[in-house]
Amino acid sequence: MRRCRWAALALGLLRLCLAQANFAPHFFDNGVGSTNGNMALFSLPEDTPVGSHVYTLNGTDPEGDSISYHISFDPSARSVFSVDPTFGNITLVEELDREMEDEIEAIISISDGLNLVAEKVVILVTDANDEAPRFIQEPYVALVPEDIPAGSIIFKVHAVDRDTGSGGSVTYFLQNLHSPFAVDRHSGVLRLQAGATLDYERSRTHYITVVAKDGGGRLHGADVVFSATTTVTVNVEDVQDMAPVFVGTPYYGYVYEDTLPGSEVLKVVAMDGDRGKPNRILYSLVNGSDGAFEINETSGAISITQSPAQLQREVYELHVQVTEMSPAGSPAAQATVPVTIRIVDLNNHPPTFYGESGPQNRFELSMNEHPPQGEILRGLKITVNDSDQGANAKFNLQLVGPRGIFRVVPQTVLNEAQVTVIVENSAAIDFEKSKVLTFKLLAVEVNTPEKFSSTADVVIQLLDTNDNVPKFDSLYYVARIPENAPGGSSVVAVTAVDPDTGPWGEVKYSIYGTGADLFLIHPSTGLIYTQPWASLDAEATARYNFYVKAEDMEGKYSIAEVFITLLDVNDHPPQFGKSVQKKTMVLGTPVKIEAIDEDAEEPNNLVDYSITHAEPANVFDINSHTGEIWLKNSIRSLDALHNITPGRDCLWSLEVQAKDRGSPSFSTTALLKIDITDAEVRRLRYMKNSNFPGTTKSVRKPKFKPKKPHSSQGLFLHPHCEIALFNLSNVNLYSRVFQGAAQAS
After folding, report:
1. Which residues of 123-153 are buried (b: 16+ CB within 10 A; e: fewer)?
2. DSSP assignment of 491-559
3. Distance between CA 157 and CA 210 in Å, rounded?
4. 141 pLDDT band (50/70/90 cuts)?
5. How many other CB atoms are there within 10 angstroms of residue 207's CB atom?
6. Of 51-55, 234-238, 626-630, which has the strongest mean pLDDT?
7. Of the candidates 6, 318, 481, 583, which lies 20 to 30 Å from 470 by C-alpha distance?
8. Cβ contact 172:157 at 8 Å
9. Whether 123 contacts 96, CB under 8 Å
10. Burial code of 23-52, b = ≥16 C-beta within 10 A, e = fewer?
11. For residue 739, is it within any domain?
12. CA neighbours within 13 Å on the CB side: how many for 708?
């Protein structure tokens, strides 16, 4: 029984302990690629931005208690992440750099308040293309001999990129595509290109820009490629491949009369063509000295060994040889150069001009004007000489006088030369401008202190040629002549001048053209005059126009134009159309007479009018310019007219004169018969002549006194004038017709 009680007690205690136990929480393990759980095998790109939510811790508590999350790092390491204790969200708080730290150790923990479970995790930092290639072991300097064969390796560059994958692979290329060098794109080995050479004398240093470029990759979501550049300095090393070179060529030396034996004449200078490592050089004379000269083998100074009086030649052509000596002391490359040495006496002779018979200082020549340009004046036989030697015999030749007409050759002379004068400007050699051309030949020494000189006069007599055209003193001539000028009258004299002399200067005149038929010209004097039979008439042709030609004996000519105007003469009287004229005058309206004067110009053709005879004289007035005739203002009706002249009928006769304004003046008279009526009579006459119905024939009723119209009668006219009687029934019918007819008349 006791044993059973203890067993029951133990079982009860066991049940109590189990009831009071609390199990620890734990993380979920969701495997690779999961973004929540216990960060097992979790990796993160190094270009993840700070502040990004990168992971979520996730776990559970068996009892379902609330849990919290924590993350911690080694005290010596950076705290790269932070965690939200409630939700487990992990945030990046420090920048990642795979090249500095490719994995991060952290301790993550989960707690239910009583139990804490901690795990150590390793977060892998994956690569992003955030590094550029970097050349190592700079600067790059290479020393290369100039005779290195094409294709040889010159140098090797090396660049590293700490990125992985394609972002860490590096390729190489040259920035200058036209360089004599090439680079292997994978190894960075620099070579001299096939067919290329180096030359120390042309370029001692080459600068090669090499570019290193990675293979590209992703950075912050974009594809990027990084590159770097470096400069390789290639110094070309000189080798012995160039012959020695003389400096200051050509070489000339002079020996004078007072030069002493042993004196230095000149020095030649040479240097090794290989400037980087020059060899020692030695000088020697090869030939041409005849023992008269020697050279210092180290300095290159050439000296005379004899007295100038003992020398057999005026000019010595020496050949100097220079030889390079190798470091071992053996002869190497060689070069030669000519050296000219002249034996010069003292300057004691000036230049002198010579003719065919000896020294001469005046030369004469005759030649035609305007010779061809470039022609040589062969009539001048001139020689110039300086008896000195060498530089003392060198002088310049020039012309002094009219500039630009001639030139002299040669312009520089050594010792002696034939002088040639050449035409430079043919137009300036003109007989009409200057019959004689004079200039001087001047010879002046060039390189002497004394500058000795001499001159010679050159006189050229020019001969005339027919090189000019006759020229009129005017392009046109204007003349005026009266139309009544008799045949053979002088009109105008033209003048043309030919500046040539002799027969070439004689001018012959002629005229031609449509207006020249009535005129002649004297062939020598140029006087233009009318034909003997010519009859000029300004009224028929007032102006003549033709051409005058001036010609020399060889047919060279020029032309001028002649304009001749006929001056009108008052040779026509005014003419009336008829000697007896009849006019009908309506009271209040003038009549007009007209006479024509056929003269060509005013005032000869202007006509003035006047009344020469009328009885009585106080009835009519006339406008002297227009020929209009009207009754005086005091006469306003037929009754008033007949009160002045009773017993006369209506037909008046006047003698009218037309007189021109010429000098002397001409006049003509005409008899003018004027039938005077008024508007009413005019209408009646119109109806009578038109045979209107109701009219009767005109009758004459002598000595009938005028009466006023009666109501039972028609219209009555003044006695002795034509009368038209009307039936009373027709008066009103035709009244408007009469008015229209009167207005029309």
Report:
1. bebebbbbbbbbbeeeebebebebebeeeee
2. EEE--EE----GGGG--EEEEESTT-TTEEE-TTT-EEEE-TT----TTT--EEEEEEEEE-TTS-EEE
3. 8
4. very high
5. 10
6. 51-55
7. 481
8. yes
9. no
10. eebbbeeeeeebebbbbeebebbbbbeeee
11. no
12. 1
Distance CA 271, CA 244 (A): 5
The single residue listed with the structure tokens 């000869």 is 604
Tokens of 16: 């109590």
If asked whether residues 118 and 139 sit together in one domain, one would say no
For residue 38, is it within any domain?
Answer: yes
320 and 358 in a single domain? The answer is: no
- The residues, ordered by sequence, that sit 6+ positions from 741 with a Cβ below 8 Å of its Cβ are 682, 683, 686, 687, 690
**pLDDT for 148-163, tens place per residue?**
898 899 999 999 988 8
Q: How far apart are alpha carbons 295 and 309 in whole angstroms?
A: 21
pLDDT above 70: residue 9 = no
Q: Compute, in degrees rounded to 10, the torsion defined by CA atoms 665, 668, 669, 675.
A: -110
Please check whether residue 615 lies inside any domain of the structure.
yes
3-state SS track over 373-426: CCCECCCCCEEEECCCCHHHHEEEEEEECCCCCEEEECCEEECEEEEEEEECCH
pLDDT at 325: 80
Give the pLDDT confidence of 68-89 residue by residue, as tens digits: 999 999 998 899 999 999 999 9
Which comes out higher in pLDDT, residue 66 or 19? 66
Q: By percentage, how much of the chain surpasses pLDDT 90?
A: 33
pLDDT at 172: 94
Label the pairing between strands 394-400 and 412-414: antiparallel
Q: Highest mean pLDDT range out of 227-241, 568-582, 693-707? A: 227-241
Which pLDDT band holds residue 359 (cuts at 50, 70, 90)? very high
DSSP string, 87-105: T-EEEE-S---TTT-SEEE
Distance CA 551, CA 557 (A): 4
What pLDDT, on the 0 to 100 scale, is given for residue 116?
Answer: 92
Mean pLDDT of the chain: 82
Helix (H, G, I), strand (E, B) or coil at 683: helix
- Tokens representing 614 are 């009328």
Domain span at residue 192 reads 134-237
Question: Is the per-residue pLDDT at 744 higher than 60?
Answer: no
329 touches 358 (CB < 8 A): no
How many other CB atoms are there within 10 angstroms of residue 540's CB atom? 10
So what's the pLDDT on residue 729? 32
Count the neighbouring beta carbons within 10 Å of the beta carbon of residue 384.
Answer: 22
Is residue 730 one of the residues assigned to a domain?
no
Radius of gyration for the chain, computed over Cα atoms and rounded to the nearest angstrom = 69
* Residue 699 per-residue DSSP state: B
Task: Give me the number of domains the chain comprises.
Answer: 6
pLDDT band at 570 (very low <50, low <70, confident <90, very high): confident
Instruction: Quote the CA–CA distance of 320 and 267 in Å, as a whole number.
Output: 11
- Per residue in 394-422, pLDDT (tens digit) is 899 999 988 889 999 999 998 899 999 99
The two three-digit tokens of residue 728, written as one number: 């009373």
Closest of 126, 186, 135 to residue 158, by C-alpha: 135
Instruction: Round to the nearest angstrom and report the end-to-end CA distance of the chain.
Output: 187
- Same domain for 503 and 551, yes or no, is yes
Q: What tokens does 670 get?
A: 């005409």
**Are the C-beta atoms of 534 and 514 separated by less than 8 Å?**
no
The upper half-sphere exposure of residue 134, i.e. CA atoms within 13 Å in the direction of its Cβ, equals 8
Residues 591 and 682 in one domain: yes
At residue 291's C-alpha, the angle toward residues 287 and 296, to 5°, is 75
CATH number for the domain that contains residue 254: 2.60.40.60
Residues near 557 by beta carbon (within 8 Å), at least 6 away in sequence = 469, 470, 549, 550, 551
Contact between residue 510 and residue 521 where contact means Cβ atoms under 8 Å apart: yes
Query: Over 80: is that where the pLDDT of 687 sits?
Result: no
